[in-house]
Amino acid sequence: EVQLVESGGALIQPGGSLRLSCAASGLIVSQRDMTWVRQAPGKGLEWVSLIQSGGKIDYADSVKGRFTSARDYIRNTLYLQMNSLRDEDTAVYYCTSASPDSGWGQFYWGQGSLVTVSS
Amino acid sequence: EIILTQSPPTVSLSPGERATLSCRATQPVGSSSLAWYQQRPGHAPRLLIYGASSRPTGIPDRFTGSGSGTDFTLTISRLEPEDFGVYYCQYHGWSSYTFGQGTKVEIK
Asked: Per the CB < 8 Å rule, is A104 touching B98?
């Protein structure tokens, strides 16, 4: 059974930094395209970052230059390093992955980790 | 940059009725690049449709995806009580994933 478990969310002041983790079981993070998706309170879904199995990483314009995705092969964990945080980064952050029979559709989702940016 | 526009923003229906949700792209997209998700309050999204018309394992056949080019549709043939929530379409480009703004399906 595949599980994605996010952690690291917290209340942080504007301008601060935070690192989210997504611990995976039942899949190997280095062998899948994985994404970060966020959802601000009462708002829709926003794609944040894509890390492809081959290592290519892309970011939404709203976080480019401030957020960095990475993966740890030994811990089988995905990370999202968030710097220079702004009020508008307040959201639940999900990590996601496709399944072998879902094309690139994101079949697996974590439970989400809440990041609140506020002074 | 491709933008997805979903309509209507909200639809009010009764259990047993048919729901038709639209997702329109600003440029033609490959059918393999279009997915639909359902999100119930307090839950993570759930993949309903990938490749515009394919259902993952475990998704009921009352959910049907169709369309091509710039116009895509999600049809729920007979609404069940657990189907009420927000539905999103998503496009996968070469280096990005884009969501539509969502359609809320509420109980009439």
From this structure: no
**What confidence score (pLDDT) does residue B93 get?**
85
- Concatenated DSSP letters of A74-95: TTTEEEEEE-S--GGG-EEEEE
- Residues in chain A where the model's pLDDT stays below 50: none
Q: Are A4 and A95 in contact (CB under 8 A)?
A: yes
- Strands in A2-56 per DSSP E: 3-7, 11-12, 18-25, 34-39, 45-51
pLDDT tens-digit map of A78-103: 999 999 999 999 999 999 999 888 88
The pLDDT of residue A103 is: 86
pLDDT for res A118: 96
**Structural contact between residues A2 and A26, judged by C-beta atoms closer than 8 angstroms:** yes
Quote the CA–CA distance of A15 and A10 in Å, as a whole number: 14
Which residues fall within 8 angstroms of residue B25, CB to CB, at 6 or more apart?
B2, B3, B4, B5, B69, B70, B71, B72, B91
B96 and chain A in contact, CB less than 8 A? yes
Could you say which of A35, A101, A109 has the minimum Cβ distance to residue B44? Answer: A109
Which of left, alpha, beta for B67 (phi over 0: left; psi -120 to 50: alpha)?
A: left
